[in-house]
Amino acid sequence: MWRSAFTILALAVCIVQAANAQALGDPDKGEKLFAQCKGCHQVGQGAKDRVGPHLNFLFGRRAGAHEGYRYSKDLARAGANGLEWHADTLDIYIENPKNLVSGTRMSFRGMKDPEDRADLLAYLRKFSDNPANIPEADPTATGTDHDVDPEILAIVGDPEYGEYLSSECTTCHQADGGDSGIPSITLWPEEDFVIAMYAYKTKRRNHPVMQMIAGRLSDEEIAALAAYFGALEP
Predict the structure, then answer these.
(1) Per-residue pLDDT at 2
(2) What's the confidence (pLDDT) of residue 147?
(3) What CATH number does residue 46 fall under?
(4) For the chain, which ranges sit under pLDDT 70?
(5) For residue 88, which of 55, 60, 53, 109 has the smallest C-alpha distance?
């Protein structure tokens, strides 16, 4: 009965956004910068494809995969080869589109200032799926400052033990890498996984279920889970 109640609680709370989230940039400034994009793209309620595709639900989307829009062959091919739009790939693309996809039809000359790109991405992020404000989750995908003991980060985890422990994690997080409403932890870099778990363990991140789970895990168990999910192919 206890485990059933916990499962219900976990499913209900797993979508809570972290209060200490980091932002990409300033979305208000980004809205003004979007004026450079309006000639080709729309975003927000009622947005439609124009010269370029609309940019709703952009984060996490495979490049060249928006249904109904005719992409260049090069961009469609890049998407078929695995290019997805996340904070890092969008940053590269916006800086100079043809550097990332040489045959793109996007004629934008690029946004050279990294702060401007961060502000623009913060604005566009508002129109993508939640969770929007969990640092390692799409669509934020930014790093996390930390003070985790280097000896803890150096622990080599046992992925088989991690698999044994993982059932509680996969109550919320999908092992296939899906992130609909709940961030994916599949193929996380091990160090990022450990840092995030210790942020919950030390209550620097506010999420009641994650604080409870991380609080009862040992250093070796966290390392084992990091090793398992870090190598888990979706």
Answers:
(1) 39
(2) 77
(3) 1.10.760.10
(4) 1-23, 130-146, 177-181, 206, 234
(5) 60
| Distances in whole angstroms, Cα of residue 70 to Cα of each of 49, 64, 67, 78 | 10, 8, 8, 14
Residue from 139, 7, 146 nearest 61 by CA: 139
Q: Is 156 a domain residue? A: yes
Q: What's residue 10's pLDDT?
A: 42
What is the domain range of residue 69?
A: 27-125
Residues 143 and 71 in one domain: no
Helices (H), the chain: 2-13, 27-33, 73-80, 87-95, 97-100, 114-125, 150-153, 159-165, 190-201, 208-215, 219-231
CB 197 within 8 A of CB 217: yes
| Structural domains in the chain (count) | 2
Task: Classify residue 132: in a domain, yes or no.
Answer: no
**Final residue of a domain: which of 97, 125, 153?**
125
Sorted by sequence, the CB contacts under 8 Å of residue 15 that are 6+ apart come out as 130, 131, 181, 182
pLDDT at 183: 74
In the numeric block, the tokens 């994690």 are attached to 169
Q: What is the pLDDT of residue 15?
A: 34
**Could you tell me which of 144, 97, 90, 140 has the C-alpha nearest to residue 117?**
90
- The mean pLDDT value of the chain amounts to 82
Residues 66 and 82 in one domain: yes
> Do 157 and 199 have their domain in common?
yes
